[in-house]
């Protein structure tokens, strides 16, 4: 099983270019290897914590687990992943998701193997950030030597991790995906990625690092016993392919649209695919949740009447009730022709990832 998180759209920090493409590339390879994928994008701290707990509650004992994070990060004793709501200059440890917290949560599920890949910078905080230097560190209660844990970081301490303009993927993933499908053990795959990276880039600026406390030969292609009932439950959470029938009585028009996870990958984003029959109108969609309403639209292109329209809706995890959508047909943005309401059957909207417990930091 794999939990993949890509943060690229930050509230207070600079946006990143490749993180979601990196998650998508890794998910495609792991899916071919038989992994069950939980992939999400642009999570807040509370959502990262809750998504991790949700994932490891589903993970069966003795499973192989791969965790991948792409986004902003830093190292300050431990390694810290920065959520999309992280402050810019005065962030503290409590504003971020620590690798030790992830490991502690993971070990409660008793996986056979935990592979943790952190694709982020590992520079220490600026000395101007007085808050984090005055903060007391958290002590996590587990003994890593008693568990098989492999940690692979895209760079070394006091180094940055880089993206290149106009590149589809970050530097690490460009090399990692070439080796993931190889019929080798995990340590060999990651060492090969290191060597491949070193041959192509200056290690003075970025040097991937491998830390492994296991000598056991683990292959991502190993056969792992699976419980059919559990697998069915996992698929109900991670699979989404639904056809929704729509009827617009005022204009006497009926058609169907297809609903799926964004790029068949991200659980907290969905794609609504409208067939070309809708291209005679401008389509707007009001997405209604308990406390907010969002509006997306697809504008018709008179040169592409035969193409489907794809409407992508992000941040579904923020929904506090069932997600409903009002689809409107418009001749112009000001001239409404007809509309219809439909409820979207999206599994992640039922997980309350937005919920912050009082004891949760």
From TrEMBL:
Pfam families recorded: Peptidase_C14 (PF00656)
BP GO annotations: proteolysis
Regions annotated as coiled coil: none
GO molecular function: cysteine-type endopeptidase activity
Stretches assigned to the Caspase family p20 domain: 1-75
Domain of life of the native organism: Eukaryota
Entry-linked InterPro entries: Caspase-like_dom_sf, Caspase-related_regulators, Pept_C14_caspase, Pept_C14_p20
Gene3D superfamilies tied to this protein: 3.40.50.1460
Matches recorded under PANTHER family: MUCOSA ASSOCIATED LYMPHOID TISSUE LYMPHOMA TRANSLOCATION PROTEIN 1/PARACASPASE (PTHR22576), MUCOSA-ASSOCIATED LYMPHOID TISSUE LYMPHOMA TRANSLOCATION PROTEIN 1 (PTHR22576:SF37)
Name recorded for this polypeptide: Caspase family p20 domain-containing protein
Organism name: Clastoptera arizonana
Classification lineage: Eukaryota, Metazoa, Ecdysozoa, Arthropoda, Hexapoda
């Amino acid at each position: 099983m794999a939990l993949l998180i890509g943060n690229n759209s930050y509230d207070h920090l600079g946006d990143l270019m490749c993180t979601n493409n990196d998650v998508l590339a890794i998910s495609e390879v792991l899916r071919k290897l038989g992994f069950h994928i939980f992939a999400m994008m642009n999570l807040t701290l509370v959502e990262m914590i809750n998504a991790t707990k949700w994932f490891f509650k589903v993970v069966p004992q003795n499973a192989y687990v791969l965790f991948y994070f792409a986004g902003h990060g830093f190292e300050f004793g431990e390694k810290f992943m920065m959520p999309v709501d992280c402050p810019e200059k005065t962030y503290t440890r409590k504003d971020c998701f620590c690798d030790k917290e992830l490991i502690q949560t993971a070990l409660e599920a008793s996986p056979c193997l935990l592979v943790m890949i952190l694709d982020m910078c590992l520079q220490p905080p600026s000395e101007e950030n007085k808050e984090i230097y005055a903060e007391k560190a958290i002590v996590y209660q587990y003994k890593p030597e008693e568990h098989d844990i492999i940690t692979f970081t895209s760079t070394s301490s006091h180094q940055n991790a880089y993206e290149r303009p106009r590149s589809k993927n970050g530097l690490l993933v460009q090399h990692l995906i070439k080796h993931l499908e190889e019929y080798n053990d995990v340590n060999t795959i990651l060492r090969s990625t290191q060597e491949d990276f070193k041959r192509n880039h200056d290690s003075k600026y970025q040097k991937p690092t491998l830390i492994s406390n296991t000598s056991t030969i683990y292959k991502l292609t190993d056969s792992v016993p699976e419980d059919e009932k559990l697998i069915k439950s996992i698929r109900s959470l991670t699979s989404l392919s639904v056809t929704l029938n729509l009827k617009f009585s005022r204009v006497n028009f009926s058609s169907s649209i297809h609903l799926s996870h964004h790029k068949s990958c991200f659980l907290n984003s969905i794609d609504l695919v409208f067939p070309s029959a809708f291209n005679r109108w401008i389509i707007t969609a009001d997405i209604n949740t308990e406390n907010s309403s969002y509006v997306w639209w697809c504008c018709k292109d008179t040169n592409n009447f035969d193409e489907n329209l794809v409407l992508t809706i992000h941040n579904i995890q923020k929904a506090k009730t069932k997600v409903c959508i009002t689809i409107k047909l418009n001749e112009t943005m000001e001239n409404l022709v007809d509309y219809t309401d439909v409820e979207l059957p999206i599994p992640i909207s039922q997980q309350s990832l937005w919920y912050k417990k009082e004891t949760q930091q």
